[in-house]
């Protein structure tokens, strides 16, 4: 019988660098391809079949709670005093449970299920009490570094960039901030973390405590460091959106969908498109959409939350929350919303 799995998503931060006049706009609610950042994290967790998923909310918590409530339990961090204190907010729901707990952040939309499963496998294979996710980068500036023993290569501690000494300038292994840990040990060691000079309790500090107490600490080193790209500014939001767009478009093209210009094609990851459909330039398809085979969609088409059959030709049009049958000719200059269109119809000029 498999060991119980739990997940804690930390999503309480203020996200000041997003720069907004909206008083309670949580950072993790900003959209990428029409989908909130934190939903990508939930999507990555789903295939791993967690027994319990808990999201820690704080600033903008009502907004975040509304997004996650169907897929996660919610706890509140009333005082935003660090990631360790955030994770401790999940203790009432997880204390004394046997199993492994995964801690992730809600602002990492590029993280994949495959990587998280590899983290679990590494933890089990090497019988580790704590396994962290790391990556090798050329420029580790502003990242927390992973300090290893020069001879044994065992992990010793995590050093925040602000506390880094010159001797660590050549360290290129960074801490992703994602941890897999024995659930009972987690809350014991979170409670031991001391306040930093900035008045925060940082979850990475538990790594050194584990090591000092003779517990086994290891790491799974990522092959693709872009997976741990965290969104803190609108520039980073745009960068993450481009990477996600390229991922989605590549997957669709490899499944039999043609795109004349992938650079101007924006499709949500929860869109399904059948073989031999051609997507023309400047096309956007957002939300849950099921699109059949052999359609020609675009140029200049916007589609949202719509099911479309086969063999349609749609151009210069906007379609939302509708159902479209087969072999229709729609456009140019057509707007359809909340309608059901049959088959073999011509709508537009």
Q: Using DSSP, what is the number of strands?
A: 27
Average pLDDT level:
94
- The percent range for helix content is 10-25%
Quickly give the structural class: alpha/beta
What general form does the structure show?
elongated
What is the straight-line distance between the termini? 63 Å
Low-confidence stretches: none
Gyration radius from CA atoms, angstroms? 23 Å
Q: Count of DSSP helices?
A: 8
Spatial arrangement of strands, main beta sheet: 5-4-1-6-10-7-11
Please report which band the strand proportion falls in: under 5%, 5-15%, 15-25%, 25-35%, 35-45% or over 45%.
25-35%
Biggest beta sheet attributes: 7 strands, mixed
How would you briefly describe this protein structure?
By secondary structure, the protein is an alpha/beta fold. It has helices spanning 37-45, 61-68, 83-88, 91-94, 113-125, 183-190, 206-212, 234-254; strands spanning 5-11, 31-32, 35-36, 52-57, 73-76, 100-105, 130-136, 145-148, 155-159, 173-182, 217-221, 258-259, 265-267, 271-273, 278-279, 283-286, 289-291, 296-297, 301-304, 307-308, 313-314, 317-320, 323-324, 329-330, 334-337, 340-341, 346-347.
Describe the structure.
The chain is 22% helix and 29% strand. With 349 residues, it is an alpha/beta fold. The strands form six sheets. A seven-stranded mixed beta sheet has the order 5-4-1-6-10-7-11. The relative contact order is 0.11.
């Amino acid at each position: 019988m498999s060991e119980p799995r739990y997940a804690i998503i930390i999503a309480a931060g203020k996200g000041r660098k997003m720069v907004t006049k909206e008083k309670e706009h949580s950072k993790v609610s900003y959209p990428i391809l029409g989908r909130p950042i934190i939903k990508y994290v939930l999507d990555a967790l789903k295939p791993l079949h967690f027994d319990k998923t808990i999201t820690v909310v704080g600033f903008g918590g009502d907004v975040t709670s509304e997004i996650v409530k169907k897929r996660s339990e919610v706890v509140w961090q009333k005082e935003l005093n660090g990631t360790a204190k955030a994770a401790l907010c999940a203790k009432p729901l997880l204390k004394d449970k046997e199993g492994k707990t995964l801690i992730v952040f809600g602002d990492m939309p590029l993280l994949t299920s495959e990587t998280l499963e590899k983290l679990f496998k590494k933890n089990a294979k090497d019988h580790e009490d704590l396994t962290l996710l790391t990556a090798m980068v050329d420029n580790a500036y502003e990242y927390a570094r992973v300090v290893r023993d020069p001879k044994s290569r065992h992990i010793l501690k995590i050093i925040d960039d602000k506390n880094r000494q010159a001797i660590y300038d050549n360290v290129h292994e960074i801490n992703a901030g994602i941890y897999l840990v024995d659930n009972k040990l987690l809350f014991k060691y979170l409670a031991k973390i001391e306040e930093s000079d900035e008045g925060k309790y940082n979850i990475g500090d538990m790594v050194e405590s584990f090591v000092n107490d003779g517990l086994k600490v290891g790491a799974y080193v990522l092959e693709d460091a872009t997976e741990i790209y965290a969104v803190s500014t609108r520039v980073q939001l745009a960068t993450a959106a481009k990477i996600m767009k390229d991922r989605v478009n590549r997957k669709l093209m490899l499944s039999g969908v043609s795109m004349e210009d992938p650079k101007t094609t924006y499709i949500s990851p929860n869109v399904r498109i059948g073989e031999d459909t051609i997507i023309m330039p400047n096309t956007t398809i957002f939300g849950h959409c099921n699109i059949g085979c052999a359609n020609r969609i675009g140029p200049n088409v916007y589609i949202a939350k719509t099911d479309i059959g086969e063999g349609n030709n749609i151009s210069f049009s906007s379609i939302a929350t509708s159902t479209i049958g087969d072999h229709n000719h729609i456009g140019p200059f057509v707007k359809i919303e909340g309608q059901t269109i049959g088959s073999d119809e011509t709508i537009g000029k």
